[in-house]
Amino acid sequence: MFWDEKIEMMERGALEALQLKRLQATVRRVARKVPRYQQKLAESRVQPRDIRSLADVHRLPFTTNADLRETYPTGLLAVPKDDTLRLHTSSGTTGKPKALFFSAKDVDNAAELIARCLVMTGVTKRDVLQNMMTYGLFTGALVMHYGAEKVGCLVIPAGPGNSEKQLLLMQDFRTTVIHVTPSYALYLADFLEKKGVDPRRDLALRKAFVGAEPYTEETRRKIEQALGIDVYNSYGLSEMNGPGVAFECEHKCGMHLWEDNYLLEIVDPKTGEPLPDGQTGELVLTTLCREAMPLLRYRSRDITSIIPGPCPCARTHRRLHRITGRADDMLTVRGVNIYPQQIERVLMSLPAVGRNYQIVLEGLDEMTVNVELAEAGFDGHVEHLTRLQSEIADRLRAETLTKPKVHLVPPGTLPVSEGKAKRVIDNRSL
Ligand code: ADP
Ligand code: ZN
Hints:
The protein is α/β, with parallel strands linked by helices. Helix content is about 30%, strand content about 25%.
């Protein structure tokens, strides 16, 4: 099913011609309107007329978080302030937030892209979408909300947390789709289990759009099994409008990135050099349709690769592999580089392990992994716990080549955050 079949199925040659036209227009606009880009283009010794083919994108300067922070609040606007309609911010981790502005056209366009994503998974106006993302400055909830309304769904702006209320809403309004972070989806699954609610029997849930933080295939399966639904990976970032940048189709094999709206590159995170399809690196995106705040070659810090070859759905927009984390998430423990996702992959593949975990780094370089047991994970035999503990430790050692300590804790005892999960606590004295 298609929301915009003409664009979604556009033949590659035509799609690339459209991208080039939009890229050229974007470069011309920022060169005229945005002093920061005038300066950056001059430093890179490139002018709008130098962009003659898509490959010329490599001549353009990157935009980094520093550019967004240093021009905060309005320095990257390409339209008069009166022509902006909405402000979102992205928290990042340190310092000032990044301000992202939308014009009326940008708000509508972001909703259009979400509509494509939803319809691609089979959503129709008969669906009831319960939006469990945080409403507010964060793009996650509002952008999805507008897109789902465009499709004609009944949208329930539930926000995250308050699981009793979520359950009541799901029951009373026969919610069919939820939009949720992976950590809250796992928490909700636990909550329903404790309440004795069997989602397959007692609820109308069919799908979940899960994103905003990295998660693994194992976690996807865990959520699907616990809730009896299909989970579709949903990727976006505030700098690129929020959700709706890349999304899985019904085949659930990588996320189609809407290439008529975003020019996609994968670069080596260290050198910035472009990498070919199939190789893993940092995702770099250029907005092709953004009016209020166009960005050239934005360094997302997200690590992924392009999946080569066509998708069974025949959409022509290329697919991204699941994001394995941010370049900044990488931990170095005793000289070894580890992504939290590696640990999650091990934990979520074990049925006796519950749905929450935490990585704690302390002292000189001690790593402890706190692991919640599944509700049915403890049968009262201490030797079973000891065996599980050493099995987890062995598997983590094989996966990460380090020797983390494993600490088993009862279900529901690790902290749960309402927004994005905080998986790593780094108290190292180094
Ligand atoms: P921040 O988290 O910096 O405040 P955003 O709210 O814009 O910013 O979140 C965007 C980031 O969330 C992405 O850059 C990416 O790291 C992460 N993210 C979003 N969706 C996914 C997903 N499906 N898989 C992995 N990571 C995701
Ligand atoms: Zn597809």
